[in-house]
């Protein structure tokens, strides 16, 4: 009896020590409450209704550390349902928190939803923005900066400062009027201007001789931008969470939905210098300027605004091909990025996606492989969880282009967990496209002109292609990505150009493992909003770590 008591005491002691260790090892939590309201601002000098978060335009910046847990209570005070999506945050095992209409019910007016997600194994520059209707055209976007954990080295000295610049095209028209334009079957007009952090002019100050990081994100609706700083070189160090070979540029193209980070050393005579963002591949060039202010400067910006690249598509393609993965650098984990040899993996499947701009029922729509997506009343993720039929189709979407008329549907492409896919974006239109995949980053292994064929694989970069979450596809060209489908869930693949997304150029990948376990996917949140055919249903959180 005494031996049993000693044994029990020993076991309890070990469990207690284990429990303490688990508690101590738990990643930090950060708590936020954000209230979404309308407000009036004059970004381009004309008063207009915008969307504020906690009274701010743009919204608050999220500064977190790798693996931080984020608990964010979002209160919707608009007159329309609303969601935020976290652009580039992988939501590991947790598409429940992705914040798009295929995974979440929109938050009703005068209601709230608490997002609970983790910046799991990520580092770098990202953004958030509204995924509902045309709310993105009114604001409510912001930056997400994920910093490295202690003892995880970064491949450059810590900068002396850190600036986040949210750059994008802007309309003087309200988001409701823009939505009415699209709903009527017409395209959006040309933007009215370009903003940097919600304004046409800002000042960013630094000390002569010091080096600063600039994080640039294109948060606009439709337009590629070129970014440059008068008299200063831009040393690229990070692209959407991927540390790069540190090439130096005079200017950088940043396409819709993309983010880059570069270092700038203030090594010029003390004065103020232009910071410039201007539209690319547009007949009319729109420009926004700000100032880089040396703290010992007494001379304001002067002279002509530095011009952007005079060359167009070929120049941009050439620059894009110079973005390379830093194979020896660590990212969010201590192991080198290049320890994953993606180029040695044989893809399990090739998906060839041709974007198009068809007229359906005499209205403008956009499509992949002739299918123009429509949002159902019930989020796909909820339909999947509750086994509700008739919400989406798994057979309406062909993974290669075919001839015939375009049509509307709600397609989901079924895939298996740990598949490795080659996805080719074929753009036969005369305008540049920007393509985004939620839940992942991917290797951008090739850009090419004309029609893609299997022979083009010989041109792929299978050694040090950069990983990112949004890739541009040049006019009458193709872009190939490779993606390891290691994140179970329902994931949105879409055009980052919001008119095209809104009018159907998107679908979902269902990444699935038949063995249900918390090792591969988290339970449905206890606070999940239910809508459509899921109303009145009762979630059963029955998954365990050590079994089905």
UniProtKB/TrEMBL annotation:
Signal sequence range: 1-25
GO molecular function, one term: copper ion binding
CDD domains: CuRO_1_AAO_like_1 (cd13846)
InterPro entries, sorted: Cu-oxidase-like_N, Cu-oxidase_2nd, Cu-oxidase_C, Cu-oxidase_fam, Cupredoxin, CuRO_1_AAO-like
Annotated keywords: Glycoprotein, Signal
Entry-linked SUPFAM superfamilies: Cupredoxins
Domain Plastocyanin-like stretches: 36-149, 162-296, 377-514
Similarity comment: Belongs to the multicopper oxidase family.
Protein name: L-ascorbate oxidase homolog
Gene: LOC110752941
